[in-house]
Amino acid sequence: MPSFDTVCEPNMVEVKNAVDNAAKEIGTRFDFKGSDARIELSDKGSDKDLTLYADSDFQLQQIKDILLAKLTKRSVDIRFLDDSAKPEKIGGDKLKQLVKIKTGIESDLGKKIQSLIKQSKIKVQAAIQGDSVRVSGGKRDDLQAAIALLKKDVSDAPLTFNNFRD
Question: Is 47 helix (H, G, I), strand (E, B) or coil?
Fold first, then answer.
């Protein structure tokens, strides 16, 4: 039976390249000379985080802008980043902010995808499997219609489709 998986996974190679390019630009820019401005990428197991360090709120915002520009240039969707954490002071006037990289489909988004597919009356089934949603059906055309439906209706998360099987 033909099927595919709907996942929410960034291309980590491109993310790493974008972080490296942003770090290089931060190191060469005049307005960051003599400051503690930097970006660190840590991927411990399944958790992938970026930590931004700066001397002031303004510099922290500049670092974010540089990072977003580099990610966009490398075709990484910026909706993968969750920068809702507040900047915290780490001594003196220095700041640190944690930016999480979202991976996997959360359960409420999985349920939304499942209900969208059921309501569409396309002859496919959706099943939540961990942090992905497997969509299977009888015909390849139905699967392609389901992909088009999800691309159109789910705009709050950067979905990718993989493991397409015949």
Answer: strand
Beta 124-129 vs 132-137: how paired, if at all?
A: antiparallel
**Contact yes or no for 143/161 (Cβ under 8 A):** no
Global confidence as pTM: 0.83
Closest C-alpha among 73, 69, 65, 76 to residue 101: 76
Residue 16's φ and ψ, nearest 5 degrees, are -65, -45
Span 122-150, pLDDT tens digits: 899 999 988 899 999 988 898 999 999 99
Mention every residue, 6+ apart, whose C-beta is less than 8 A from residue 77.
Answer: 10, 158
Rounded CA-CA distance 51/14 in Å is 17
